[in-house]
Specification:
Radius of gyration: 21 Å
Low-confidence stretches: none
Helix content: 25-40%
Distance between the termini: 59 Å
Strand content: 15-25%
Strand order of the largest sheet: 3-2-1-4-14-15-16-17
CATH topology of the largest domain: TIM Barrel
Number of strands: 17
Oligomer: single chain
Largest sheet: 8 strands, mixed
Bound molecules: zinc ion
Mean pLDDT: 93
Shape: globular
Length: 468
Amino acid sequence: MTTRRIAVRAAWVLGEREGQQRLLPDHTVVVEGDRIADVTREPVAGAELIDVPGGIVVPGMINLHNHTLNAPLFRGIVDDLPRSATGPSKVYTILMPMGGMAVTELAPDELADLVALGLLEVAKSGATTLVDQFRPAQSCILDLARDMGLRFYGAPYMFSPPDAKTDAKILGSSKGSGEGQESFKAFHALFKQHHQGKDGRIQVILGPHASDSCGPEIFKEVDRLSRELGILATTHLAQSQAEVDAVKQRYGTDCTGYMQSCGLLRDGVIFAHGVFLTDDEIDRIAKAGAAIANCANVFLRGGRAAAYERFAARGAKVGLGTDAERMDFIAQMRTSGFVSKQLTGRGDAAPAAKLVKAATRDGADILGRSDLGRLVKGAKADLVAVDLMQPSIQPVRDPLRSLVWYASARDISAVMIDGKLVVRDGKYALGDERRIVERGARATRKIWELAASKGNMPRELMPEAIGQ
Ligand SMILES: [Zn+2]
């Protein structure tokens, strides 16, 4: 049996020359099986042709931080929300309780419907690799990601059990996750069942929730396990002032010092957000080789800048994530860029080429994957073709600037993951898109109704306040 060959041809391919990303005009990416066999300007024979005239092919992007379940669940719930509705941190007052409700109150097939809606958005987002933190009770995401064709790094949550030091509100957030040793038991079971190894499309990694919801006993065991198993660890760090204050009060140090004391200030560890880190902490993170997942959209929603450039300018490894605000990864690059320009007061801060590199090559390097995030011979065949022949994009002067500043995920015409076309002609190719959307929306509404009836919905969003 001969290996299936697919050729993806476009006006520009973001390939590489001498280890640097370079736009290659009128090139074709030739795929055999799950690998890139060639990137060439020559005509290609004996292959199925995916032609994107006037378009650009870029490496599949790397979404370093997300909670897929939350994207549909919080849509319209946390937008335009006053701080008076959330207290010091909406994470523990609204987001986590509602997420917990979804995994404990929905029937298994409804929960799967909700998650599938989020994964469908990811499949069409431009990101081909997804790092997702989720509750073990929502482990259906591992099967769904596999079946829906995604490259997935699943990090089941870990929490500390309640003690005198821990805010009761934080612990109430762990619903569906287990606490302490229960967290590790759940991790080991999922790792055994789903982890496909270092090159596998589905991987299970370590995901302690945050520095204010996990004690040293959790983080130290995460450090030990990640070294023993050779897998990544990721956690939320310095995502609110309340978290920074709690860490200082409990451990007498800053968030970065706390991670260092647990062995986690190092390569192979991804910190989500870091918005409340000091410059000195960013310098220590950069020096130690740990990475930041920068999620600009989700913070901007609450009125806070999370600028890519703040971390990049200090030499930290930084990639991009969506954290469930929206999964459109082109929009994510754009917001990261705009916020960086606003922060620095410079139009040339975070230029398009740098943002694309952060979203592809840098993200892949943070995962320790030299076979992802680049379109070169021998790399995994993960790529995204974007149709630039749009009224909002044409004419094209610089394809990467057109992509970052003027395109959106809706302009994506093809997505390939592991050599398989997941999106074709702008449509999800492995299932009934409409059906997934309808079923997912139905399951989401059920949680909204439940949250409203139990008083777990902010007053500003109760049916009577929004005219329903
Ligand atoms: Zn998050």
